[in-house]
Structure formats: C-alpha cells, structure tokens
Amino acid sequence: MRLVRHLTDLPHPILANGSVVTIGAFDGLHLGHRELLDAVIERSGASGLPSVVMSFEPTPREFFSGSHPPARLMRFREKFESLAGYGVDIFYCPRFSQAMRAVAADAFIRTILVHGLNTRQIIVGDDFRFASRREGSIDTLRRCQKALQFEIQQMPSLRVNGVRVSSTAIRQALFDGDVSLATAMLGRPYRMSGRIIKGRQVGRTLGYATANVDLRRRQSAVMGIYAVRVSGLPEGPLSGVASVGTRPTFNLTKPLLEVHLFDFDRDIYGAYIHVDFIAHLRDEVKFDSVEELIAQMHRDTENARSILAAHAA
Q1: DSSP annotation of 13
Q2: Residue ranges of domains in the chain, CATH in brackets
Q3: In DSSP terms, which residues pair with 139 in a beta bridge?
Q4: DSSP characters over 103-125
Q5: Which DSSP string do the residues of 181-236 spell out, in sequence order?
Q6: pLDDT one-digit tens code per residue, 84-102
Q7: Which pTM does this prediction carry?
Q8: Helix axis angle, 179-186 relative to 167-175, nearest 10°?
Q9: I need a surface site. Which of 27, 48, 89, 308 has the fewest CB within 10 A?
C-alpha cells in the first residue's frame, strides 16, 4: 500500500484510468468500516482500478476539539497497518489544517476527487459529510456525478444489539466498561499496540512484573483493569491482566499501559506487542496501603484467569 500525504504526490500514472474511493476517519476499523472496505476492494478488483482510502491526519474531530480531542481507537501506525493488510492500494491522508477546513464542497469534488484521485466510483456511508462546515453530502455528489463521470454507492449503517455501529459508540461502550459490546461492534477485541519500555519497575517489587507500553495517545479509550491477551511475542498469544491509568496509589500523572503476563519471565524490552482487551475487571482506584493493593492484584489475577479460561472454551 502506498501512503500519500500531499495532493501533488499522488501517483497519477497509477490513477490514469480512474480509481475506486472511500472517505472517512476509519478510526478502529469497525464492522461498518469493513463493509465499506469490502465493497471498495470488490469493485476495485472487478474494474481493474486501484482502491483508494482517503482520510485526514489529524482527524477533523481532533482538529476542532483542540486540547481535548476524543480518544483515538487506533494510532496512525495501527490504522496504516490494518489498511495495508486489507489490500488497499493507496492511502491518501492529507493533513487537516485551516486551509483544508476552508475548502468548499465543489472545490473538494473537483480538486481532490476528480483532478487528484480521478475517481470513477465513490463508496461512502449513509452519514457521509465533507468539506467546509460539512456542507457536502451524498446529494451534493449526486448533483454532479453525471457531469464529472463518477458513480456513487451508499452503504447503509449497521446495528449491533440495537446500537448503530460507529467509532463514537465504541468509545462510549469502552468508557462504560462494556467490552463485549465494543468487541461486537469491532468484530474483534479492542486492541492497543506499542513498544515495551522500561518503567519504574514498581510492579516487580510487588510480585507482579509488568511490561510497560507507552500509549503515545493524548487520550485513552480505555481506563482501568482488564483481562487481556497479548500477541507479537515468539511464545504466541499469552494471557494476562492489564492496567491502563495513572496508578493513583503511587501518585503518577502520565497514563500508562501495564501488562502482567501469566506464567512468563523473560526480558522483552523493546518488543512491539498487541494487547487485546477481553473483559473489564474494575476501575482504577487509590488504595490506602501497598498491602491493600497487592491483595487486590491477587484478586484481579484470579478473576482474569477465570474469565480468559472461559473465553477460550
């Protein structure tokens, strides 16, 4: 998959005969996103035209939220790797800026969709909006599709357990500790990936050595204690218990992902791992003593082992 960040860098020879395009934030790549991508890949294969996913970095919601952005379900690297694994040909991801914010719908269509991407088919969700002040819609595209020679396919929304599948709904489910609903809407467990860094080794002194992962996020979609499965190590998928938070008992301020792997004792600093969140055990709380914390960690471990054993059955 080719990553393109600037309009002038688009590979025009590859796009010479046209392209099949979808546009969106694609945060989390949930079931609705995957239906869109399935349609794009299928149409791309049938027509022989390259598939293009267009998104923005930062996302428009992050841009407009300023210092209080919504929690990302995926870091940029995770999104890139997921789209590449899907077989997308071109990931066009320009920077969302004041200049991009001001682009009107007609200019967006002509400059980006037609002249830039040479769009022959655009596939989007039923809530699709674009351009300055979100003035562009499906109807805007339909008014000019004949003159500009592209087709439009609109995909309906999906609902899971009566809830419309969206990145916003998944964030809310994770915030509420409803990991099962988030998993159902994602079509897989919620995952955070990152490289293991050296921490203060507090867990080791408590009898629970942890792999510390730098979140590299301004906000985390999950907070608390979870039963998890970890992949990315030679030993294969491993079970464990994870904490995401600031460890209030020790008065830390920067959120951190810490994972205690069951029955595991090896130096894995520098490894890049994937942490799948299977169940929410409890919220993060401050304990009056280290002894109370250790007792709770014992309970968390037993609870997580029981849940993961049942989940694997």
Answers
A1: T
A2: 2-156 (3.40.50.620), 158-188 (no CATH), 189-312 (2.40.30.30)
A3: none
A4: --HHHIIIIIIIIIT-EEEEEEE
A5: HHHHHHTS-EEEEEEEE----HHHHTT---EEE----SS-S--EEEEEEEESSTT-
A6: 999 999 999 999 999 999 9
A7: 0.92
A8: 160
A9: 48
